[in-house]
Amino acid sequence: MSNQVEMGAGAMRERRFGRVNWLGLYTLARREIMRFVAVWTQTLLAPLITAALFLLIFNLAIGPSRGEVMGRPFVHFIAPGILMMTVIQNAFANVSSSIVISKVQGNIVDTLMPPLSALELVLGYTAGGVARGLIVALAIGLGVLLFLGVQIAHPLWALVFVLLGSAFMSAVGMIAGIFANKFDQMAAITNFIVTPLAFLSGTFYSVEAMPEVMQRITHFNPIFYLIDGVRYGVLGVSDSDPQLGLAVCSLATLAIAGAAWAMFRTGYRLKA
Fold this sequence. Notes:
The protein is mostly helical. It contains twelve helices and two strands, in the order H-H-H-H-E-E-H-H-H-H-H-H-H-H. It has helices at about 1-15, 20-40, 40-60, 65, 75-105, 110, 120-150, 155-180, 185-200, 210-220, 220-235, 240-265, and strands at about 70, 70-75. The protein has a two-stranded antiparallel ribbon with strand order 1-2. A hairpin with a 2-residue loop joins strand 1 (about 70) and strand 2 (about 70-75). It is globular. The two termini are about 35 Å apart. The relative contact order is 0.13.
């Protein structure tokens, strides 16, 4: 009798979805995508307006007198940086806000209870961040193409770095969301870590114009390689080798995603 009870309990705990719970993964990814689609004026339209304002203000205030940067008009030079900055901010916000809101409202258990492995949780949340980042990138890229007349030099490189940047910042958003227990902590992470890294990564300038010490520090910032890689994809010019940037960003994404996986697996700051 005891053996039968043990066998029954084991059967109840068994994952009956094969190696991957595709239905659960699809459901989580769809939920994360529908979250930002449902409020598209805040999550999609607002970032586009902000990016357009950045381009307009910099073009009016600095563009006419700035001259060319790396052989390109200044407004053309900053356009890929603004595109990538907007992408990474939205990918980060999509994942981090989802986790923090669930923790604050006390319904994070609804995500942790279903038979989803730590890897499936990471992939599901990442899918939502990547989808939002890609939609924002396509919209801004279309605007840059139509209104600035910028022809994309290497579309595949640009797409790869947009996807990689979205995945990287989605993973960062997971770690931030898991670590933060309230909105004040999340705001502190955004204001004191994410935003400075984005602004000090060559978004509005070439790092070659910076002092040597700052150049060395910047090269330890993965976001620099993301912005530089998209700039290479759009304009065909860059401060660093795009292949080096691809390697650095890929390794950084795997490392951060691995840390997020470990947090989900152990229940760090998620389970009592």
